Amino acid sequence: MNSKTMSKDLFGDKRMGFFIYLFVEAVMFATLFATYLIYTPAPQGPHPSEVFEVKTVVLASIFLLSSSGTLMIAEKGMDRRNIKMILTGLLITFTFGAIFMYFEVHEFHTFVTEGHTISTNNFLSSFYVLVGLHASHVLFGLFWMIVLLIQRKLLPYNLFKEKHKIFNYYWHFVDIIWVGILIIVYIPYLI
Amino acid sequence: MQFYLFGELIVLPTDVIAAWVSVIIGAPLALYWFTKKRYWPVVWDFATSTNHRKIGMLYIIFALLFFFRAGIDALFIRLQLVTAENEFWVFQGDKYNEVFTTHGTMMIFFVAMPLLIGLMNVAVPLQIGANDLAFPFLNAIGFYLFLTGGMIFFAAFFFNAAPNAGWTAYAPLSTYEFTSGPNNNYYIFGLQVSGLGTIFAAINMIVTILRLRAPGLKLTRMPLFPWASLITSFLILVAFPVLAIALLLLQFDRFYGATFFLGEMGHPVYWQHLFWIFGHPEVYILALPAFGIFSDIISSFSRKNVFGYTSMVIALALIGLLGFMVWAHHMFTVGLGPFANTFFAITTMMIAVPTGIKVFNWLFTMRRGVIRLQTPMLFALGFIPTFVMGGVTGVMLASAAADMQYHDTYFVVAHFHYVIIGSTVLGAFAGLYYWYPKMTGKVLDDKLGKWHFWLFLIGFHLTFFPQHLAGLNGMPRRVYDYTWEDGVFVYNFISTIGAFLMGASMLFVLWNIYKTHRTKEENVGPDPWDGRTLEWSVPSPVPEHPFEKMPVIDRRDALWWAKQEERSLPIEDHPRTSPIAVRTVQPLVLSAALTILSFGFIYGWVWMQILGGAASLGFFLLRAFNDERTEAYRKEEQDDE
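Structure tokens for the assembled complex are given below, as produced in the milestone run.
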């Protein structure tokens, strides 16, 4: 076996497999987008424009979208084998992701206290399922980043690099879904 | 039977009691037998392996187990319907709903799917010269997800809560307002868990086929079973996520007061759309791999190459593509309007074209071939007329106007049993006999195999042909009773006789396996059928990493031509890296965690949901710090320095 090509071969397999997995996730989100479009606005109960709050959406978006940028710092650091850059990039990304989660929880909490619960009408049901599934992906990503920080010390560098790259794809994907949510869920009712 | 337990009235039907009694008696006997025969090391070896052959065999073993279970359900259905105004045991009313729901769901998700995925697992890597699937660990995870989902669904009956809204779980019947028991929660979680496993299996299959083929084995030289597996896997990628989301929405309706599918704001028809956007591709997910198996078998047993190879591949792809454009033909009667009905009627009829191409190519493959009528080939020959009959009734059903009469009658029941048993089940049996030597090293007895084939095929036609007539005479599906005046007694009576013939034929499979392993000491050689494709160049049963010497492929059916020219295939000196195998109990951990999580949701116990959720996340941690590639990567880095 030619050992030099091993990690290249295996990473190629893994990357293709993970991209296919992301495609599966994209189909799931597409189905939820369709659900949201079908049920919004609902014939009764609150209209989206009465419920959404510009400030929260804008702040949440700023932090989540820029976290894709800050993750680039870690990616650069990986290529240069610069541990400091990797750590800085990951930590900033983690903080931004956590701030995004804060706004999400804040938003959900505000809605519920205003009486806009999941069973109020179908617009809110599909909103909660779609945005909630996205938020749980962000939460899983935060959990994953902590694992990555520990893995850095334990794993051989190439394997860590591989896992880091897979995480990067995941995080960028979650960001793209957020862009979709902005375009389909929020913007039509905020402008 | 009724009794009080802790002050609560417990009502247990006698069939549930009978099931518990048989488990309480059967389980210790089985445990004793395993211990006496010293089988536990073998069981442990299979349970912790990530080898594709072993996981494939596990898929098949459990699929056969579920096949017997769902087959007994079918016999109960037939016994209840054997005469007019009949009352067999407890299977009337809601019990009957449970029994047909379990039969349908189990046959589709826990019999047909795993039988095919199991055969893909065994055969596809060998046919393309891969030492294992691309992700051996993920393969084990996929299997355990299927098993967990299957067992959750299987367990429902023992807690007297079998799902009862049909295998399609149409809303609003399947929502909390109309079926409030835990019954349909079992449906949601059984399918959700096993569906995830199916998605992983598909990802694994695609990467394996696209990246791990032997040098020189271009896609255009690949045998048709891997081709069918590849296209099927793409269908799974689109169909199963839609099912996952449909189940998620149903779960929110049932548990959290959402009203996606019922009430003033909800749309019951939206469930039907989502279900059939999954459900119709699912039909082709079941059929295409069987087409692949038949193509390989017919070619091998006729000693001829596949006629019209290119058109076979194109036909597979076309069927797959059209499969996504026909879902609303299940919904002709909901009132989508003449335009939609016409569109879906035409796309449905168009599927007959690529299917017809395939049928003629199979016939032309046999033409002037040297045909050997061994068991796998018999199943292939039985498949062609059976499937064509199912296809013809399919075209009848596709005309929307006529479908108003056929809809929800036994005509439909007859149709889909003709296509699914005709293709998937006969295909799985053919594949089982064909690749059995690759799995175990033994060839199944041909004489008993022929008994199995003839009894099954005659029983099958006896069961389902009269159902066409019952349906045309107006007998609706999913009812447990009919009157003498309905004039469908004769059809039902014949149908029941046929069902028992099919049941009897399955006993021959068990007897065959027992006899084969008892009497045949020696393993057969690598090539018992004088085969054409690469799997027949490696020993039977297949060792782990069989392609240590990686063959180079220079044409289609390269092994066959090498045999004709009495040479061996050239060897590649620097093949790509093979996937890394590992012995692991981690999938068992995930299985336990998801069982806890699912039962937490099924019975609405929040503490159990939290426990199961935490355990599932814990599994990710376990996996993150136990990667079988760590050692290999460390070694590679040391070599580089």
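The mean pLDDT of chain A is 92. Chain A touches chain B through 47 residues (CB under 8 Å). Further analysis is deferred to the final report.
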